Amino acid sequence: MESDNFTFSITVLVVGMGGTLVALTAISLLMSLLKLVFRSSDNSSESSIGGIS
Amino acid sequence: MIEAILSGLHGLGEGFANLEWYNVVMIAVGCGLLALAIRKEVEPLLLVPIGFGAILANIPLAGLMESGGFLKTIYDAGVATELFPLLIFIGIGAMTDFGPLLENPRILLLGAAGQFGIFITIILALACGFGKVDATSIGIIGACDGPTAIFFASRYSPDLLAAISVAAYSYMALVPVIQPPIMRLLTSKRERAINMTPTKNARPISKSVRIAFPIVVTVFGGLIAPLGLPLLGTIMLGNLMRESGVVERLVKVSEDEIASGVTLLLGLAVGATMDGARFLKAETLMILGFGFLAICADTVCGVLLGKLMCWLSRGKVNPLIGAAGISAYPMAARVVQSEGLKYNNQNFLLMHAVGANTGGQIGSVMAAAIMMSILKGMGII
Questions:
Q1: Contact A11 B374 (CB under 8 A)
Q2: How far is A2 from chain B (nearest CA, A)?
């Protein structure tokens, strides 16, 4: 059954606005994590290259 | 014989005989769009084909938007199938450098606040009598993102497509006019003068991060809102090609030939939907009004979150960069830079604003995708 306008508006506010905020917060955390992961892997590859030379 | 000549003459005059007042008005509107594009250089790449498409569509008896007509063929091939906005998104992804955003991922939150106008406008449109799906299509104007608005409207509200796309592109072009007064109203002179220098000792973003970013965002965003994956996937595909550095020819063709060619076809097809009989109604004016409100609300929410960040960081974040959390790239970032410079000529807001602006691009796509999932989840579409 289709919801009334009031229910839909509240859903838009809570799930739409909140969902966008949560999704982008999660993506920003993932970005920080990527930086962390690849910084350590880049560092380790730099040091191994240094070891070879 | 005279009768035949008269019939022939009558045939020549049929176009004039069938010209209605609304055709004349829409031809004038088309000329107005052309004047804006050519004399004021307002979004000329889009407004020239849209304006000319509007003129073509309002010449009676030409049948360009009837089955078999060339504008109808273009419309069916690229707008009804949602193909054109997606091809443009590949080009946008190929042109966009997400580096400033990756340097400071927290700025992505400004890209979320910059979409709040969408949700506020949906509720206002609902209150004014629009249906849920149409209200959502109208709200998406607040994404400040033409291809997203066209994608959504062509899929769910094809009757409103012309008004929505004209509103979306017009207000994108008017960002330098709409935003500064709101930015000044919501911030103090001291806040506007806050100096944001580049992060000290910042490491350059590694190529691995730049390559992993579009893949991770596509998978994560696609899982959250699968219906929006075409939007997210195409922009991230373009960006992956750019950052991979191994498909330079594809990048070049995406950002030049494909983006330009598709923009021409998309503009013509959108202009062709501006048939006076359907376009000239109170609903169109309301949509233009809602679009304006949506972009104002985006700016207000972005600046307010910027102020919150300023307070939490003890005055290290200039709240003006919040206004760049919309998708109008790079125009919104330039507006922030120029406003910041007015109050502190040593200020370097551009890269921070570009970060927020690219965050706005992701935010607009995510917001539209989330709204699709909500509508689907509630059984409305």
A1: yes
A2: 7
